[in-house]
Amino acid sequence: MADYKFEFTLSGATLSDEQKLRISNDIATAVTKAVVGDSPQLMGAPMFSACRINGGKYLIGAEAAELLRAVEASPAKASLTRGMNI
Amino acid sequence: MELAEQIRETTCPSAPPDTGAVLLGVIAGKGEVVYITPSMPVTSSLLESFSQNGIPVENRLRFASRCIQHQCVQWSGDRCGLIDRAVLTAEKDEDRAALPKCGIRSTCRWFAQHGKNACAVCPEVVRKPAGA
After folding, report:
1. DSSP-assigned letter for residue B124
2. Interface probe, candidates B40, B49, B68, B95, chain A, greatest A C-beta count within 10 A
3. Which A residues in the span 30-69 are in contact with B, Cβ-Cβ below 8 Å?
4. pLDDT category, B124, cuts 50, 70, 90?
5. Do B85 and A60 touch (CB under 8 A)?
6. What confidence score (pLDDT) does residue B6 get?
7. A-chain residue closest to B65, CA distance
């Protein structure tokens, strides 16, 4: 596993906070584009594809399917799960 | 505010890109994260820059922020249930002696619970997987 370090030193002028922020943002964007490519494909995640991570309840596929069936079969249960962001 | 102040307690390595979060890394491929150190603070202009460049923020980037414990749906008892399940589910057989440089390991919630086993599973996590 290799590490790659890039360092930039700007000298000879006083940069405004806005300029520094823009440079920082542009470097981050450039690094990201170089890693993901110009037309990044959406990534799947087999282990976690049943639902959102951190933004929703973590369920494995079988559990998610079972819960969805239960919700569809019972409007009352559906109201209970509203807001779970499944 | 210094990063160390922001993460006084433990840090969630799969947080939403909200104010106070930092850019932890870039998802290079399936199960592969390029970690960026030091982690970069998230700003609205940074997110805008990603968006303008067609980068799906929550699918191809990983953010870290303070672990919100009981306020998170992943919280289970007194720990993060997500990493517990992930470590159990994953079948990783890698050389765990060689860990990547990670900007949050010293305060990482997942590392605190599972050590290097958490690091082995961490790259598998996509916050908003395609089709989810």
Report:
1. G
2. B49
3. 31-33, 35-36, 38-40, 42-45, 47-58, 60
4. confident
5. yes
6. 42
7. A54
Q: Which of B56, B86, B132 sits opposite A49 (nearest CB)?
A: B132
Encode pLDDT of B31-57 as tens digits: 889 999 988 899 999 999 999 999 999
The answer to whether ipTM exceeds 0.90 is: no
What's the whole-number average pLDDT of chain A? 73
The Cα B71–Cα B73 span in angstroms is 7
B62 touches B100 (CB < 8 A): no
Nearest to B23 by CA among B38, B8, B45: B38
Q: What is each CA distance from B9 to A10, A39, B44, B69, B93, in whole angstroms?
A: 35, 37, 25, 10, 30
Closest to A48 in 3D by CA, of B103, B4, B83, B114? B83
Task: Say yes or no to pLDDT of A64 above 80.
Answer: no
What's the pLDDT at A19? Answer: 94
Question: From the CB of residue B37, how many other CB atoms can be counted at a distance below 10 Å?
Answer: 15
Q: Using CA atoms, how far apart are residues A57 and A71, in angstroms rounded to an integer?
A: 15
The position carrying tokens 């908003």 is B128
pTM of the model: 0.76
Helix, strand, or coil (residue B35)? strand
Q: For chain A, what are the domain ranges? A: 46-81
Give the C-alpha separation, B103 to B73, whole Å.
24
